[in-house]
Structure formats: structure tokens, C-alpha cells
Amino acid sequence: MTTRPPALTDLASPAAPASAARTRAGVAYAVAAYGLWGVFPLYFKAVAHVDIWEVVAHRVVWSLAFLALVLAFRRAWPQVRAALRSRRGLLTLSATTVLIAGNWTVFVWAITNRYTLHASLGYYVNPLVNVLLGYIVLRERLRRLQLVSVGLAAIGVGYLTMALGQFPTIALFLALTFGLYGLLRKTAPVDALVGLTVETALLTPFALGLLITRGLAGTLALGHVSRGTDLLLASAGIVTALPLLWFAQAARRLRLATMGFIQYLAPTGHFLLAVFAFRERFDPRAHLIAFGFIWTALALYSIEAALWTRRPAEVVPPE
Predict the structure, then answer these.
(1) What is the pLDDT of residue 152?
(2) 127 in a structural domain
(3) What helix, strand, coil percent values describe the chain, rounded to 5?
(4) Range of the structural domain that residue 84 is part of
(5) What is the structure's pLDDT at 199?
(6) Is the pTM of this model over 0.90?
């Protein structure tokens, strides 16, 4: 029995263009999400005249309002109620709430106090912290290039500490809190939209309490500075939630390795803004050597991840 070669009509099946279009859409969503995250510091610089606790409180309250509208549009409120009824899920989301609140607060503080470069370092290191946490907590096996990547990043951070005489507390706090946040969210059976809604809902009583207290004391910025400030504070919900929704759309369409490459847009944006727009302290020798180690580590990590995900499924050992 012979087999005929595929005809052109066979090759031009609807599946190929559909898959290509899906990938293009995924890349567009990912670039939009990480691109917006990359220019986040501009937003927080614009509200730097507002106390950081009030900024974080507005971010929580307006995010919940925006997410509530999105959930209503998608008719996804039953998923939120299910998450709240799950005792284990609620405990996990309570822990992630504490982590993301700390991460948000320190990030805003870093931007408003001219430590954007430290924030950039934290989010560059974050993927490698994820690998390390997976090894320590989940007992995942470190592959050779992953081990080399973690080692190079550690050398970069160590060199920066010695060269500047300052431990990168902000960077490591951001990397660890976001790494632990991602680790715990992996165990919560909810999607990104539902999870963030529950987290902001848990934070909202505290945020509202702070805003009401400031309002009664006459120190609330909202409604007392300028219309521009009011608009910026009220837009915190969209600024926070929109890239997350884009990220969720991208994650459904792209391979993890592709997402891994694009994710570096965010810390790169932070780095460029810190050096060229905000004119933060930048030691060409110390920072470039340290970041050189870290960028090399991330390049090896990304290449290894891309090669590993292309291997046939049957030869990938369980971790």
C-alpha cells in the first residue's frame, strides 16, 4: 500500500492559520501586559506627592471595583463564591493577600524614593528565585543550566552588594514575596481574575478604613489636591487589573518558554526608566558588571527553558 504525498490543499488547512493567529494574538497580549508593567513606575511617579499608604489603598479599592465589573460581564461571580467557600483555598488566598500587599507597598515606596533600579533587579532575579523555591519547597530537580543560572545571579547580587556596600534588600524582598506569591497561587485552584478579586476583597476593609480615617483627619489626597490627582488615583484599578487580564489571555495562547522571554520587558522598562528618566544613582562599573551576570543567567535560563519544552513529552522525566 502506497501513501500519496500531501497536496497543497492539505497543507493549507484551517488549523495552521488559526494556530498562527492564536500565537500572534498571544504575543500581542503578552507584550501589552509586560509593556504596561514595564512603565508602571511612571504612574507611581505621577502620584508621588500622595502618601504611599493612600496610593496602595486606592489601588486596592479601585481594583476591586473594576474587577467586580469584569466579573459581572463574564458572569464569573459563582467562581468567586466557590473560592470563598473553600476553606483551604481561602487560607491560601489569605496568605497570598499578605504577600501581594507587601509587594505592592514596597514597590510603590521604591519608585517614589528613587529605588526603581533596585525594583528592576528584583524582577530580573524573580524567575531564578522561582526556580530556587521550586527546588527547596517542591523538591523539583534543578537541571544543569538552571543551577548555573542561579549561581550566576547569586554572583551578580553578591558583587553588587560588595561594590556598593549596600545589601539589595528591596530587590530581594520584591523577588521573594512575588516568588512565594506565585508558589502559593499554584496551589489555589482559581484563575488569575478570581484570585485577584478575592485578594483585593480581603484587603478592601483595611484600605477603606485607612481612607476613611484620613478623610476624617483632613489628610486625604482624594478630592483635596487636584482633579488630575483624583483621576490618577481613581484609575489605579484599571492600571492594576488590565495587564493582569491581558496576561491571562496571553498565557492561554502561548508556550511558557515564549512567555518567559517576553516577561523581561517589565524589569527592562524599570531599568531604562531608572537610569535615563529618573536619573537614579547608577555606577556604570558596579551595576553593569552585576547586571551582566544576571542578564547572562537569565539568557541561559531562557534558552534552557525553550530547549526543554521542545523535547518530546515521553522523554521528559517527572519532577
Answers:
(1) 93
(2) yes
(3) 80, 0, 20
(4) 27-311
(5) 94
(6) no
